[in-house]
Design brief:
Layout: H1 15-25, H2 30-46, H3 57-69, H4 75-92, H5 118-126, H6 130-142, H7 146-150, E1 157-158, E2 163-166, E3 175-178, H8 184-203, H9 215-218, E4 238-239, E5 246-247, H10 253-266, H11 275-288, H12 293-300, H13 305-309
Antiparallel strand pairs: 1-2, 2-3, 4-5
Keywords: DNA integration, DNA recombination, DNA-binding
Family: Belongs to the 'phage' integrase family.
Protein name: Putative transposase
Length: about 325
């Protein structure tokens, strides 16, 4: 007796799944994917689960105004929500909005970064230990963002040229920054421990690491190769949320942030200090040393020199170089 099987039609992808699919096609980071989906979900729930295709500019304006007026979010947060919603309409729904978005905008404050003195930097670093101390030294010594520092791979360290290649920063464009000579030996010793950890993973049938884009398909053995491993790997393996493969990812940002908070408290620094503070301090101290602002701009990866100019406010020149009458 011959049995016939009806072909099952694939289940249509839900809207948020479509958003996720397209973000991955366009190589957005996993963090951006989660953030965009969160904002789109909030936008839909705000309008009582109305499908976005049945809404438009008025509904977007109402949601953004709610964020600014009722929730009093920062301007950057409101812009992030707008970017997510615009991605939904332009890239996923292919729906043109009938008018410009005219919502109440959150006020953009004039931002002045917190900068530590060199003595304060040394005090904080001296109260850190182990891998967290090394991570913060890289942040201050190279000017990289925390996420950039944790994403450094073995192949990105160039000891011969004393440089670090930052391959996946904001904006996706790679750049080169300095590798402090004082970190040569500490990093080499650290990498010996990382290699032993990687060899243990290989022996246990693991050792794979997440590769960007489609490199895992193009180079099947690359994910277990030494050069692609993270410089600061996590102490435990985890399941990749996109592929479900067991990988060893890099250190989680929260671990560095918690260790830094304790070190700042122990150093009795009376400033609001975060991981990004060391990037601010890196830029300011280079400018204090007389380096050209364009050079600092390139090391930081700023597209516009105006972004780098913000660090000139702490160059030990007081109020724009004017001497106070109290000091006369």
């Amino acid at each position: 007796m011959e049995l016939g099987f009806a072909l099952m039609e694939p289940r249509p992808r839900k809207l948020l799944e479509q958003v996720s699919d397209l973000l991955r096609v366009k190589h957005y980071s996993y963090r951006t994917e989660q953030t965009y989906i969160q904002w789109i979900r909030r936008y839909i729930l705000f309008h009582n689960k109305t499908h976005p295709k049945d809404m438009g500019s008025p509904e977007i304006e109402a949601f953004l105004t709610h964020l600014a007026v009722q929730e009093q979010v920062a301007a950057s947060t409101q812009n992030q929500a707008l970017s997510a919603i615009l991605f939904l309409y332009r890239e996923v729904l292919r729906q043109e909005l009938d008018a410009s978005i005219d919502a109440v905008r959150a006020k953009q404050p004039r931002y002045l970064p917190t900068v530590l003195t060199k003595e304060e930097v040394r005090a904080v670093i001296s109260n850190l230990s182990g891998v967290y101390q090394l991570v913060v030294q890289v942040l201050y010594g190279s000017g990289v963002r925390l996420n950039e520092g944790l994403n450094i791979r073995i192949k990105d360290l160039d000891f011969a040229q004393q440089q670090i290649i930052v391959r996946t920063p904001k904006g996706v464009e790679s750049r080169v920054t300095m590798l402090p000579a004082s970190l040569n030996e500490p990093l080499r010793e650290h990498l010996q421990r990382v290699r032993r950890l990687h060899q243990q993973d290989i022996a246990q049938g693991y050792g794979a690491v997440h590769l960007p884009y489609a490199l895992a398909r193009k180079y099947p053995n690359a994910e277990r190769s030494w050069v692609w491993q993270f410089v600061f790997p996590s102490d435990r393996r985890c399941r990749d949320p996109r592929t479900s493969q067991i990988n060893r990812y890099h250190l989680h940002e929260s671990g560095v942030q918690k260790a830094l908070k304790q070190a700042v408290f122990a150093a009795r620094i009376q400033k609001r200090v975060g991981c990004h503070t060391f990037r601010h301090s890196f830029a300011t101290h280079l400018l204090e040393a007389g380096y050209d602002i364009r050079t600092v701009q390139e090391l930081l990866g700023h597209k516009d020199v105006k972004t780098t100019m913000i660090y000139t406010h702490v160059l030990n020149r007081g109020g724009k170089g004017v001497r106070s009458p109290l000091d006369s």
